[in-house]
């Protein structure tokens, strides 16, 4: 009988605590996964910032499983939804702080105290997340400035860097010469040279000869008249 009475006390305490939590938290904040004793479990969804929103805000789900002899035994505690935001060590550290809070409240219903402790811890996590974001921004800024300085300062010339540059330069120049040669050959493709035209059309070689051999009649009287005119002019003088 004492054992049965003891279990009835645990069950009653757990049931009453769940009812009290449902009166405190809204439905979207508290979900009773199982309400069957001795396997009662619940999930509490919390936001890092209840007032002002910022880029570093995050949500976290507190999972609590009540053992048979709770609250004389601390509940099993785990966190979900933050694996991609914080390191495994940081999450474990937070869970341990919640377990310490539960240990300090042994013998009393403690879910509300655990949730309150997590809300305070989330404030610390939020500040850490903000500082981490600021640190990353500063790192990116420093990297960009370093790259800009390197471009401005240039690369020191050494025998090795000069030979590497010359090899690239010669390769690029050779490629350009080859490209221009191909373009020139493409432009001349299909066009015959003067020699090729001469050999292709034999009539071209005879054209000048034909012109020379062609008979031309000359009217000699035209020259006589011009000469007579010149003589007359001479006599008048």
TrEMBL record:
Residues 16-125 form the RWD domain. SMART domains: RWD (SM00591). Keywords: Coiled coil. The keyword ATP-binding does not apply. Residues 115-150 form a coiled coil. It comes from the Eukaryota. Pfam families: DFRP_C (PF16543), RWD (PF05773). InterPro entries: GIR2-like, RWD_dom, UBQ-conjugating_enzyme/RWD, ZC3H15/TMA46_C. GO terms for biological process: cellular response to stress; positive regulation of metabolic process; regulation of gene expression; regulation of protein metabolic process. PANTHER family: RWD DOMAIN-CONTAINING PROTEIN (PTHR12292). This is RWD domain-containing protein.
């Amino acid at each position: 009988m004492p054992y049965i009475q003891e279990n009835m006390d645990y069950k009653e305490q757990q049931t009453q605590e769940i009812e009290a939590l449902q009166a405190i938290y809204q439905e979207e904040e508290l979900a009773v996964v199982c309400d069957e004793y001795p396997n009662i479990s619940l999930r509490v969804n919390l936001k890092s910032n209840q007032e002002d929103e910022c880029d570093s805000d995050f949500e976290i789900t507190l999972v609590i499983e009540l053992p048979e002899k709770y609250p004389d035994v601390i509940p099993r505690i785990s966190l979900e939804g933050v694996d991609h935001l914080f390191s495994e060590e940081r999450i474990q550290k937070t869970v341990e702080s919640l377990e310490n809070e539960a240990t300090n409240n042994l013998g009393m219903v403690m879910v509300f105290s655990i949730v309150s402790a997590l809300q305070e811890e989330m404030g610390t996590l939020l500040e850490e997340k903000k500082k981490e974001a600021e640190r990353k921004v500063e790192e990116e800024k420093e990297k960009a400035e370093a790259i800009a300085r390197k471009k401005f300062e240039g690369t020191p010339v050494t025998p090795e860097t000069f030979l590497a540059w010359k090899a690239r330069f010669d390769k690029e120049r050779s490629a350009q010469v080859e490209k221009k040669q191909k373009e020139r050959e493409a432009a001349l493709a299909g066009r015959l040279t003067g020699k090729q035209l001469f050999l292709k059309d034999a009539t071209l070689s005879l054209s000048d000869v034909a012109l020379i051999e062609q008979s031309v009649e000359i009217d000699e009287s035209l020259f006589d008249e011009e000469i007579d005119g010149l003589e007359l002019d001479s006599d008048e003088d």
